[in-house]
Amino acid sequence: MPTLEMTLNGKPVSVEIEPGDLLADVLRDRLGLIGTKVACGEGECGACTVLVDGETVTSCIYPAMKVRGRQVLTIEGLSEGRELDPIQMAFAAHAAAQCGYCTPGFIMAAKALLDENPHPTREEIKRAIAGNLCRCTGYYQIIDAIEDAAEQMRREG
Amino acid sequence: MWRKYLFPATVQEALEMLIAHPGESQIIAGGTDLVLQSKRGQCPATVIVDITHVPGLDFIVERDGFIFIGCQVTHAQIAASPLICHKAEVLALACGSVGGPATRSVGTLVGNVVNALPAADGAIALFALEAEVEVADGSGRRWMPIAELYAGVGQCVLDPCAQMVTTIRFRPLERGQASAYQRLANRKALALPTLAVGAVVGVQDGVCDGVRVSVGPVAPTPFRARQAEAALVGQPPTAEAIARAAELAGQAAQPRDSLLRGSRDYRQAMVGVLVRRALTEAVAKAKER
Asked: Which residue in the set A58, A68, A133 is minimally distant from B102, CB to CB?
């Protein structure tokens, strides 16, 4: 079995995998990071979104071998202990989750957006989450939350 | 799912890895199509050759009268490229409409082409740009027109166990030329087009020249609406001339009834509508360049 070495949520990680393993399965089944959700399994819904070198990928169709030597950020990497990231706080404050299954994917898509663009318009927010499906909230709370998180993050510098 | 996952350091090494595993090897770049095909049992490959670590294949560059795009270039990079936005806008618009952000940041234009699907946005735009692809194999490298890559729906003429596409090239649009991309889909994101049209038009001395109209997916492969193009060349770009060209494009299209994409009659009517919109937009932009 090949050994995969990567930087996961800021820490070096080494894990044995099969050549055909997908990133979502390695994160969940081999490393126990079950915050990343698998819903459609076909890269269509965005629930499994994580960041690789700062860019969003749908980890359910992303070969794990591809992250060799790269930086992977999952939902577990956002909070510090019990201290939540501003995006997570804003999702809670705006009730931007109902069943919650899509939420980690939305938050990671928002994270990629706000790291790149601290002043997004509502239209830019919509485009950034265009790859994420939610069947509960109707999206408005999610867009409000990301808008609010952007403001919080700008205020905190 | 796969037996081996290999990282070649050069194109030559990639080809050697393919040839060393006849019948079971395949190139991967972004993998957004290949992984799905493997998961669904639609791809026999078990030895995967990942070319994303090969240096020097991630270029978007203008040189010697062409724009060249390397086989590692993603849809997101093309959509954001100032060169492509300025000199091949149809391609930037098409690549920007593929899937969602995570598909675009991973999936490559060359992958979009070699999968040979009739609904591939990037490929439809490349037909309007009369693009060529560089094919590398054991006998060397050669350029071939994009249309010759297609053997049928989802079928590329290349041997996945011996050949790869390294580069795409096409002529940049110059003064007096402009392009447009019109797309119809069930949703604004994460949806293949039910219909898409690329258009390139030049306007010189008050008449149209260099008209190129590409349409998909209304046939097994993207195709050029040649009658529509011919009808507009040499004509002043009036609304009437554009409408007539659009009507000819609609007549030339032979869509099938599709539960996924809509009825034959609807899509045939919409070919005319989208071609008219694309030509109108391209003409308006060409007059300003």
From this structure: A58
